[in-house]
Each structure stands twice: as C-alpha cells, then as structure tokens.
Amino acid sequence: MTGIEQTTVDPTPGDTGLRDEPAEQPSVTQRQPRRGSALRALVRRPLAVLSLLWLVAVGVMSVGADALAPYRPTNTDLTHVLAGPNGQHWLGTDQLGRDILSRVLFGGQGVLLGIVEVTLVFVVTGTVMGVPAGYFGRWVDWAVLRWIEITVALPAILILLLVLAVFPGNQHLAMVALGVLGGSGLARVIRAETQRVRTEQYVAAARVSGLRDGQILLRHVVPRLATTILVQASLMAAAAVGVQAGLSFLGLGVQEPEPSWGGLITQASQVLDRSSWMLVPPGGVIGLTMLSLALLGDAVRDVMVQRWSVAPARHGGTGNGEPPVRDEGEGESTEFGGATGQAAPSPLLAVRGLTVAFRTGGARTAVVQGVGFHVDRSEILGIVGESGCGKSVTVSAVLGLLPSSAEVRALSCRFDGAELLSLPDRDRHALRGTRIGYVSQEPMTALDPTCRVGDLLAEAVRRHHGLDRRAARARAVELLDLVNIPDPGAVSRRYPHQISGGMAQRVAIALALAGDPDLLVADEPTTALDARVQAEILALLRRLQAERGLAIVLITHDWGVAAQLCARAVVMYAGQVVEQGPVGTLYHSPAHPYTAGLLAANPHRALDRTSADSGTTKHLTRLPTIPGTVPPPAAWPTSCHFQDRCPLAAADCTRRPIPLAAVTSDHYSRCIHIDRVRELDTEDAS
Ligand SMILES: Nc1ncnc2c1ncn2[C@@H]1O[C@H](COP(=O)(O)OP(=O)(O)OP(=O)(O)O)[C@@H](O)[C@H]1O
C-alpha cells in the first residue's frame, strides 16, 4: 500500500504520469473458484445429497406416518413378541408385539416437532441478542454479554430436569428451554460475526448512502450471518434429537405407550439379552438423523463461504471462473486553521485543525493532528501519503464513520456552510449519501454480496428520492449507464461476484451517485485494479467532475493518479499535512523532503527525468526509496515527524513542532529547510 517501496520497475517508456491516455497494460485476470447457484453447488456434494435425502425421507415418512405406517403404533400382538425383521413386520416387533417400523415412524413426528421448536427458539434468541450486541456495542453489548455469561454458566441438563419436574412430561417446554439456553451460545457467535461484518466496507457504504441502522441490519448485516446461523442451527437440531432421545430414555419425555425414539431405546435396553436387534432401528435412525443434520450444516457452510467469499479486487475476472464481463469503453489551514487563508471564498468542504485520537486500553493516541484542507465546488483534491499516514481516518472523521473509540475534534469542519461536527446526528446522517457520496478502495467489499446490483442501487435511489419500486429500478439502470457499464439492464440482475473488479468499482461509484451528491469522497478507488481499468475509472471520475460539477476528494498513494486527476493535493505524513499546493507545483518543485522522496520513488516521474536528462528513453532497474517506514502513532515526536527518515534532518528539526508555512500564496510546507529540498530533489534525480 505504501507504493514507494518498489525497487525494480520497467515502466511504459515515455509515460510521465501526467498524461491522460490509459497505460497500455493487459488486464490481469484472476481465476476464482466457480460460484453458481447455491443449490447446484450443494447437489454436487454426495454426502450433502445423501444427508438431504435421508432427512427428507424421515420427514416425509414421519409426517405421513398415518398413511405410510403398516400398523397403529400402539397395536399389540402378544403372539409375535420380540420378532426380528420379517415380511409382516419389516423391522420386527417389541416385547408387546408392536410393530417397530410403525413406532419409529410415529415417534419421528415428536422428534420433528421438537427440532422445529428448538431451532426456532435457538435462532430467534441468538439473533435478537447477538446482532444488536455486535452492531451497537456499548450498553447493549454489556447487557447481552452478562446474560450470555449467566446462561452459559447454568448446566443445561439441570435446567431441563427442573422444567420437566415442574411440568412433568411437557417435552415442548423442555425444547423451548433448550433453545433459549443454546441461543445464548449462538448470540455469542453472532455478536462476534456482526462485529466483523459491521466493519465491512459495504456496511460503511450503506451508512454513507444514508440508510438507517434498522435498514442496514435487516438488509446488509443479517443476510451475511445466514451461513453462521444455518450451520449453528443444524448442529443444534442434531443436539435436539439426542436430547429428546435422552429425555425419553430417562422416562422424562414422551410417556409410554406413545412412541418415541428414546422410548424405543429404553425398551430395547430392557430386553437386550433376548433381542439385541431391537436396539438397531431406533439407534440407527437417531444416529443417522444427527449425522445428516451435522453433515448438511457443514456442506451448506462450505457452499455459502465459497459463494459469498469476496474475490481479491485486483482482477479483471468475474470471480466465478468464467471469462470476465468486458468493461467496454472503459488551504491548508494550519493546526490553528486557516492562518494561510487560502480557501476559496466559499469552499464546498473546509476542514480546519482536525484532530483524531483513538482510545485503546486506557491509552489515548492521536493519529491525525491538526489537519486542514478545503475543496472547492467542482474541484478534485488529492490526499497523498503512504499507508498509515492518516488519510482514511481524516475523511472518515469528516464523514462521521469512525468507531466510538475515536475522539474527533476540529476547529471547524464545514460542508456547504454547515458545521458538520456540531450537526445533530440526524442531519449529518441526511447529508451522507445525498450531498456527500463515498467510494472505497475495495469495490467488491463495498457491495453487499447477497444483493443483486440493481437491487442495491434501487434501494439507495428509493431512499434518497422516494421513488416507487419500478421507477427506482429504472433509475438504477440509468445510473449504471451513467458510469459506462455496457448492457446495464443485464448487469443490474447480477450479483457482485458475477461482475469484474472494474465493473464493481463503477457500480460502487453509481451507488455513491444515487443521491446526486455534490461531493464524492473516493478512498483509493483504483488501488486494487489493473492499469487499464484504473485508467478507465480515473477517466470516469474526470468526466463526472466535468459534466456534473462534482467535487472529489481522492485519497491515493500514487502520484501518477494524483497528477492525472487532481488540481491540488495535500501530502500527509504521520498524521499531519506536510505539504499542500497545486499538483503541478508539488510535482515539479516539491518543498518538503517527504514529497520529494515520494516523487523520486514514483516510477513515471523517475523515468521522465531519466529520459529528459539523456535525451533517450531508458528502463530503470532500481528506484530510489524513502528509507524506513511510517512510525506508529505512539512513536511520533512532537517536533518534525519525518526527522528519522529525512536526509535533511538537522538539530533544529528536533527541537520544536514545525509549523506549516507558506512557500508561495498557494503552496505550503512543514519544513524549515525548504531551500535545501530543491537540491535534494536534484541530487536524487541525477
Ligand atoms: N480504529 C482504529 N483504532 C486505532 N487506530 C486506528 C484505527 N483506525 C486507524 N488507526 C490508526 O490510524 C493511523 C492512520 O490510519 P489510516 O487508515 O488513516 O492511514 P492511511 O494513510 O489511510 O493508510 P491506508 O492507505 O493503509 O488506509 C494508523 O496508524 C492506523 O493504525
């Protein structure tokens, strides 16, 4: 992600990084495991098919026992006791001459009902507790965790015995109790899973697009938990079969003469010395049913994981192993804000003195320190820097997307005149999606894999424009067309994993445009894409800016991207703005050693210089790099943050905080050795 650690390059000759043409590089196609319909994938697994067949057979035969069973389960025939399998009684008879097959079939009815009761209560309890705990955190999480601790500490068997002691023979109540107790365990799993899902980009994108928490939970979070819930439910169902059999075996569940699988085991155990066969039918049916439930759960999990796994976004393939669907056509303020006063008279977004700190384990660490910048209407501003410099945290703070562990302060953070940080949550929420759109760096993870592309867009359109379903669908297709997607109608019916990475990024951009925003925040929107698709996405952004007057904040670590698209750029290093100015000025006359280092490490510029110096085009084999890496926030000094990696560092750099100072009227640098940066730049290039 740093983009400056490359050492060997062979860039396209003559590519300056400033030109507009797409780079002539082939699209990288990455083959992914095949992901067709879930049912088809399931059917290809023999064990899953056998399990399913067994469960369906048990279900049908139990439900249809009245019609299918050869005898009534309580009919006795004392002339044929303890018979083995024979023509009249396929599974033999018990000690009262009752037909075992009929008793197994009728006994299955109670088992099925018990499975349904346990599973329903288990899933509802686990989901209703786990999802809010994981999503909202804070006191909801605290309360749910305490409940889980209490219920998990209680021995389930004792609770069941207690229930059956108070309500003798009431197996239904016992199953409900089992579901509640098991549901606590499920809640713990779901809570953890929800905590993971809520950090996914598509949930952030849904939040930025203006969806409310309830809608996000129902539409984007719960469907992602389906696999976990299904697997856990199948295990719980298997356990329920065993528990029911156990209770009946102990004489606490279904009472004689009513048939039950556990009761059959009890009777078989009483005559084991005379007819060991009697144990086989109930033991077999219980064992096979439990095994089938567990195997089916495993198979469903494997299929769903494969189906929903998000392909690494750097690809031109569709992620299903099929050929890719072709992408056609493809002021500064100082810490104290605005001392430099370079913002346009009425910038669309103006941030002054933004500071963000995270609280972890009692410690408070500032990761963004006094950052300021502005974006004018229809302007594209780049925020450039290595990984860990605070670019994403800065824009997330502006968008209100940081977790509750973040402390955000700013002298001001104004969007179209409104102070964002003091806006009521409701109003700030309303701005996201409608006036400010957001595009993340991982297009695949920004789209909910469980929704069709058209549904995702239509949902956003309905939310922002209040259109009916049909009109929203039509608008969704228009949006796909707007972002140059060929055959938008067909693409709208596809799932995210069925489209290419470049197309997914276009869809993410269309999603961000659904509310007709004035400002688009794009966090490394092309990082994961190959060079051809990257050039197409940049061209699309430029077209949107030109045609719609869209202002764009573009986060990137790539000077080539900044140079192609942005009018001005802000260079961030270790939580601070270290340089800011017009891209051309920064590119040709950097005034901070960090900017100079980034530029020297940029293959396009290095090659450009080499060619200019020699009058010919050469292929570089080694690029200069900035030694070391960005230190962690806790290790940032109060004086110059770049001092440890800076070739110009001197004693005066380590004494006091270095202010951001004007180099010219629209160019600022946080370096006290600006005069030597040009030498440094020249030295590096020679
Ligand atoms: N939720 C968090 N809790 C604690 N620290 C965080 C959190 N999010 C980010 N940070 C820290 O803040 C610093 C800046 O992170 P940020 O993601 O903004 O960097 P970046 O410049 O955008 O890099 P990248 O391109 O890798 O996203 C990093 O040191 C990171 O570890």
Report on the architecture of this protein:
It holds the Pfam family BPD_transp_1. It is a multi-pass membrane protein; Peripheral membrane protein. Residues 1-35, 312-344 are annotated as: Disordered. The chain has 686 residues and is of the alpha/beta class. The protein has a domain at 39-308: Orthogonal Bundle (MetI-like fold), CATH 1.10.3720.10. Helix content is 49%, strand content 11%. The chain has 24 helices and 13 strands. It has helices at residues 38-43, 46-63, 65-68, 100-136, 138-153, 156-166, 171-197, 201-208, 213-249, 261-270, 280-308, 391-399, 425-434, 443-446, 453-465, 469-482, 488-492, 501-513, 531-548, 559-565, 583-588, 593-600, 603-614, 674-685; strands at 349-360, 363-375, 380-384, 406-409, 412-415, 418-419, 436-439, 519-523, 551-556, 568-573, 576-582, 661-664, 667-669. The strands form 2 sheets. The protein has an 8-stranded mixed sheet with strand order 7-8-9-3-10-11-13-12, sandwiched between helices. Strands 1, 2, 4, 5 and 6 form a 5-stranded antiparallel sheet that branches. Strand 8 (519-523), helix 19 and strand 9 (551-556) form a beta-alpha-beta unit. Helix 2 (46-63) crosses helix 4, helix 4 runs antiparallel to helix 5 (138-153) and helix 9 (213-249) packs antiparallel against helix 11 (280-308). The protein is elongated. It starts with 37 loop residues before the first helix and ends with a helix. It binds adenosine-5'-triphosphate. Adenosine-5'-triphosphate (ATP) binds at residues 1, 358, 360, 367, 385, 387-393, 403, 405, 632-633.
